[in-house]
Write a structure and sequence with these properties.
This protein has 536 residues and is α+β, with helices and mostly antiparallel strands. Among the domains are: 72-227 and 267-332, no CATH class; 434-535, no CATH class. It has 15 helices and 18 strands. Strand 17 and strand 18 (500-501) form a beta hairpin. The longest helix is centred in the first third of the chain and has 27 residues, at 11-37. The chain is globular, with a radius of gyration of 28 Å. The relative contact order is 0.11.
């Protein structure tokens, strides 16, 4: 009896408890219903759309580095700093970066900075996280009429002298988990993000834009190298890769793809080697001196959970979070794409892909192994390590040959996968893209279902607001990398000469339609029994 009636056998008490539960339940429902019904701005709509992403207050487990376990916050912050920011020292660097070089070309340069260029680099950006001074882009934007000319003069003086101010080189490094990483006891599951002064990031962004434009205009970087470059996206790069594989198929050939990751990436770039690389490429002396100053006398403190360490010097590495780091890293690793068969090289930031084609998979696997060996040898001579654990292999073939030879990386045989993901796009052996469509359609379906649950004929946000959410969230997910696999209703193939044929992709489009219909049902205040043709 006491289990059933913990307050005693009192009918009035039990009825009061039920009434309280009913009132609380109704109040919650009315609160959330009013919150959803009153959505009108893009900000509010996107906020409720992000409810699909769960937020966890999970505390990270103890950290294990080289067999040693660290449990306290301070110990883990120090261990993460040593494992991520101090994995290399200046001992791995060269001594003299100013030796005589003979570049193929000398690039033009002007240290003049216009008021418009300074403004766009400093305040025409998103409101990124501030550095240790807590001055945000919003504050700089409000003060720009008073400080704009002073900032322009500062930037111009830095470019003229080849100098990066000391205050801009102090960073607060936040340790965040990498997406999809579950093994948080390993330091490799954590990514160090440097929070720099917004005023300093304006100067770095200005230099980065100039470097990126010149690198493309003067073909300083490989044509199939992307990331931090204008008009070159990850989807463009994969589309170029898919095109080369299809060309091999049209010639009755097979192909082998190797994806290799640079271990540490930004954190392993060394100052003197970067200076020498820029001089070899023909960059003007003021820019080289600025890059040298940018990487000199850097300091950082680590913020981990609720504690922050003291500032300590950094001997090497580009700060993750700086606008200049991506383009400097591309220039630092530019020789990779001049090794071996250059037409088969593809790169996006620290991800490198090597494509080999041939008559048999044994032939392509042998060529790929030789390419990996050459790449490792070059990395050893230039202080760069390629992570064998992240190396992946994929064979592409329409032939019925069941052999799938492995590719060797540093003595480790890498077995080909059934499907491989590169830059967010799933590739399978016959380039059917079934895996890619299934995975991205499932992600889009989750968001579309969430929006559909918020809307009906009686309650929910305005249809215009939901439509903006569908355009901003559902469609980009559902149609991601469509340029790489969708060939149109008709296309030319080498098997049929110049005759147009209907590609076999209708089954892929059919998998997208249910998700799109679900999203349309969320936008339109219609009944469930409304005929489908009316949607369109």
């Amino acid at each position: 009896m006491r289990r059933i009636y913990p307050l005693g056998y009192s009918k009035e008490a039990q009825l009061a408890r039920k009434r309280l539960q009913r009132v609380v339940r109704n109040a919650k429902r009315l609160f959330w219903q009013a919150l959803v019904d009153n959505v009108s701005s893009n900000k509010d709509m996107f906020k409720i759309t992000r409810w699909t992403k769960a937020r966890s207050s999970f505390q990270p487990p103890p950290l294990q580095v080289n067999g040693t376990v660290y449990e306290t916050m301070t110990e883990k912050a120090t261990a993460l700093r040593q494992a991520t920011l101090e994995r290399r020292t200046s001992d791995d660097d060269i001594e003299n970066p100013w030796a005589d070089v003979s570049p193929n070309q000398y690039l033009p340069f002007s240290s003049h900075v216009s008021a418009e260029e300074a403004r766009k680099a400093t305040i025409d950006t998103g409101n990124t996280s501030p550095g240790s001074d807590d001055i945000t882009v919003k504050v700089l934007r409000a003060a720009w009429p008073a400080i704009g000319n002073l900032v322009r003069e500062l930037y111009e003086g830095c470019l003229t002298l080849g100098h990066h101010p000391k205050a801009f080189k102090e960073a607060e490094v936040v340790m965040i988990t990498k997406p999809g990483k579950r093994d948080l006891i390993s330091p490799r599951a954590w990514r160090p993000i440097s929070l720099l002064l917004c005023l300093g990031k304006g100067l770095e962004r200005l230099v980065a834009r100039r470097l990126a434009w010149a690198a493309v205009h003067y073909t300083m970087l490989h044509r199939q190298q992307a990331g931090a470059l204008p008009k070159r996206s990850a989807v463009d790069l994969v589309a170029a890769l898919v095109h080369d594989i299809k060309v091999a198929f049209s010639q009755r050939k097979v192909a082998t793809l190797i994806i290799i990751d640079i271990q540490g990436a930004f954190d392993t770039v060394m100052r003197n080697r970067l200076i020498l690389r820029l001089r070899q490429q023909g960059w003007p002396l003021p820019l080289v001196k600025w890059a040298a100053s940018f990487m000199s006398n850097r300091a950082a403190r680590v913020r981990y959970q609720d504690i922050t360490t003291e500032y300590a010097p950094l001997l090497c590495g580009l700060p993750q979070g700086s606008p200049a780091s991506p383009i400097l890293f591309l220039l630092y690793t530019e020789p990779i794409y001049k090794l071996g068969f250059q037409l088969g090289r593809f790169g996006y930031a620290d991800d490198t892909a090597i494509l080999r084609t041939g008559r048999t998979l044994r032939e392509t696997a042998k060529l790929a192994t030789a390419d990996v060996r050459e790449l490792i040898s070059w990395g050893a001579a230039n202080g760069i390590t390629f992570d064998p654990e992240k190396t992946e292999v994929m064979h592409f073939s329409h032939k019925k040959d069941d052999t799938s030879p492995s590719v060797t990386h540093g003595g480790i045989a890498k077995v080909p996968a059934e499907a491989i993901r590169w830059l967010g796009i799933w590739l399978d052996k016959k380039l059917t893209f079934r895996t890619h469509i299934e995975k991205w359609a499932a992600k889009a379906k989750k968001v579309a279902g969430h929006l559909h649950g918020l809307c009906n004929t009686k309650h929910g946000p305005l249809p215009a607001a939901v439509r903006r959410a569908v355009k901003a969230y559902v469609e980009p997910i559902l149609l991601y990398s469509m340029e790489a696999w969708y060939t149109g209703t008709k296309s030319y193939t080498a098997w049929h000469g110049t005759k147009k044929v209907r590609p076999q992709i209708q089954h892929l489009v059919d998998k997208l339609n249910p998700v799109l219909r679900r999203a349309i049902q969320a936008i339109l205040p219609i009944w469930k029994t409304t005929p489908v043709p009316i949607y369109y």
